[in-house]
Write a structure and sequence with these properties.
It is a single chain. The strands form seven sheets. Strands 3-9-10-16-13-12-11 form a seven-stranded mixed β-sheet. A five-stranded mixed β-sheet has the order 20-19-21-22-23, sandwiched between helices. The protein has a three-stranded antiparallel β-sheet with strand order 5-4-6. Helices cover 32% and strands 28% of the residues. The chain folds into two domains: 226 residues, BirA Bifunctional Protein, domain 2 (2-Layer Sandwich), CATH 3.30.930; 94 residues, Anticodon-binding domain (Rossmann fold), CATH 3.40.50.800. The protein is of the alpha+beta class. The chain starts with a helix and ends with a helix. The structure holds glycyl-adenosine-5'-phosphate. The site of glycyl-adenosine-5'-phosphate has 18 residues, from β10, β13, β16 and α9.
Amino acid sequence: MDNLMEKLVSLCKQRGFIFPSSEIYGGIGGFWDFGPLGVRLTRNLKNLWWQEMVLKNDNIYPLDSTVIHNPKVWEASGHTVSFTDPLQECKSCHKRFRVDHLKGDKCPECQGKLTEVKQFNLMFKTFIGPTEETASKAYLRPETCQGIFTNFAGVVDSMRPKLPFGIAQIGKAFRNEITTGNFIFRDREMEQMEMEYFVDPKEDEKYFEDWKEKRMKWYLNVLKLNKNNLRFFDHPKESLAHYSKRTVDIEFKFPFGWGELEGVANRTDYDLKTHSKHSGKDLSLTNDKGEKVYPYVIEPSVGVERLTLAVLVDSYKKDKDREILAFDPKVAPFKAAVFPLLSNKQELVKKARSVYDDLRKDYEVNWDDRGNIGKRYYAQDQIGTPFCLTIDFDSLKKDDLTVRDRDTTKQERVSISNLKKYLKTKLEE
Ligand code: GAP
């Protein structure tokens, strides 16, 4: 199955989905750039998450906080002490390894001796202002949710929400991971989509179950991922993060094994209480019974890169010579591609161009007039375009075109006047 990862890495690069960051300088481990197709794909995924969280629920408020916070935030949250991975270093080649990734007590690279286990903090450090002193030290956020907790009072005071309510954010997060790899599965720079749902402490378990089920349904019914590729994993008590009462991961069957795609955590009142204590600002609320409470937090959190990898793996199909990314149309970078049958016949090009320009007002559509029609179909299958529309000589007489379906490869003729209606129905099926 590793073969599938190799195929995806190469397809993603060749077709403009994902490039190694700074590749002309030899790349930089754990950093990846999204190309023209990748940006469209990830934007669709982010929009679908946004629709699910913010548009569907009028009690979930959007937020966009900064990447760098006051360093006191990370002391209060526990990250400066607890956001660590145990590592061992090879005494010969000085490479560092995560203890849980090591199989024996010799270096997997050069068989050298390993040091004692050390704790390594995963936060990236930087300095604010012109001096590199301890006093100016700051961190790039390793998760987006702390910005939600530090803005909790601002949202409550301005929006006046009642429990339960949520705050949602999509943004960059950074982790100095010891070992990266598996393409975009574990990165040092990533984007998180996090929603913190604030509930009455007595209702935490009910809302936890609620969000756990809702999130699984999103993968199955909205993104239409294969149900055999998804499962829940309930974290045993001893492996829970310091803030968590319960965490269930939604796992995806990646080619290298089952891995966490999304975490749903019951963070209790840990965050609001610790920030109240450290900042001196009381972050409690009054519930509908007039009692002062520190709301509990239910948090579904997923990384854009990991979700993108899951969608790519789930969609990849090989059918004889065809390589297909069978994306759900909602996710596909282009909804349709438009071709003139022959690129040297001006009347075909002109008509195809007018169809393309008209569709472009409503959809992301692709234009292709290179090579023969077979090559164009091949290229569109590879990037997951659900429909290919070809203008041929009959189109000039009948004002119609052929629509070729990516999944069935069947073709049918559709009149141009009916095309938008036809596509709308097909794309929403
Ligand atoms: N606020 C909770 C939190 O950050 P997490 O389980 O550490 O929890 C949540 O991260 C999600 O973020 C993961 O389920 C995963 O999708 C994504 N994620 C975390 N670390 C990542 C990394 N190094 N590279 C890519 N995605 C990552």
